[in-house]
Write a structure and sequence with these properties.
- By secondary structure, the chain is α/β, with parallel strands linked by helices.
- It has one domain (21-209): 3-Layer(aba) Sandwich (Rossmann fold), CATH 3.40.50.
- Helices cover 27% and strands 26% of the residues.
- It contains 6 helices and 7 strands.
- The chain has a 7-stranded mixed sheet with strand order 3-2-1-4-5-7-6.
- The chain is globular, with a radius of gyration of 16 Å.
- Residues 1-18 have low confidence and may be disordered.
Length: 210
């Protein structure tokens, strides 16, 4: 995984580590930063599916943590990019919202020693390597109480082409969350991105901690 933009775009031919998110934000606005919540997550919020303490893991510039705070929930955003978090904190100030933003490795969630009733993940899981997935799920298991929920938006194997992050199959999700979780639903949806008005084919997974 090296590039998040289309291979025929302005960055064609230049490789960079997928996890070097500070460099990505330093070079401009990434395609996943659409300046508003993803519609699939906004629908969850509007339907009252988010409750209690909410964690936006891999929050980027914080739109989903800010969304949770705007409906009165205790919200935390977590990301490894200091540059993205500066933007997120500025947004919170401008909007008059109280959100805690933490610079922290998403693979070390257990180190927070905290529990969250709902975890939102837009685009983190599909960027993980195989060996990182188990570490991430272990951290989630430690951070979500029984009956808590993890909501994930990820690129799906229904997306054509080979640009962008890896595509995820439903069975991969089910296999990763086979121990200590119930996969409640995996539904086809879209991830909105700035480089394609149609968006990208995605899965919205709702996964319950048992």
């Amino acid at each position: 995984m090296t590039e998040i933009e289309r291979p025929d775009g302005p960055s064609a031919g230049r490789a960079r580590p997928f996890h070097d998110f500070d460099a990505i934000y330093a070079s401009g606005t990434p395609p996943w930063e659409i300046g508003r919540p993803q519609p699939a997550f906004l629908e969850l919020a509007n339907a009252g599916r988010l409750v209690g303490r909410v964690l936006d893991v891999g929050c980027g510039t914080g739109e989903h943590a800010l969304m949770a705070a705007a409906i009165g929930l205790e919200a935390t955003g977590l990301d490894a990019s200091a540059r993205a978090l500066v933007i997120a904190r500025n947004k919170a100030t401008e909007r008059g919202l109280s959100v805690r933003f933490l610079e922290h490795d998403a693979l070390e969630l257990a180190a927070l020693n905290e529990q969250f009733d709902a975890v939102l993940d837009c685009g983190l899981f599909h960027g993980l390597e195989d060996d990182e997935r188990s570490r991430f799920v272990d951290g989630l298991r430690a951070s979500v109480p029984s009956r808590g929920r993890y909501y994930m938006l990820c690129f799906s194997d229904r997306q054509p082409g080979d640009w962008g992050p890896r595509r995820i199959r439903q069975e991969e999700i089910r296999n990763c969350f086979a121990d200590g979780w119930t996969v409640e639903s995996i539904e086809p949806t879209k991830i909105e991105i700035t480089i394609d008005p149609v968006g990208a084919e995605a899965w919205l997974a709702s996964i319950v901690r048992t």
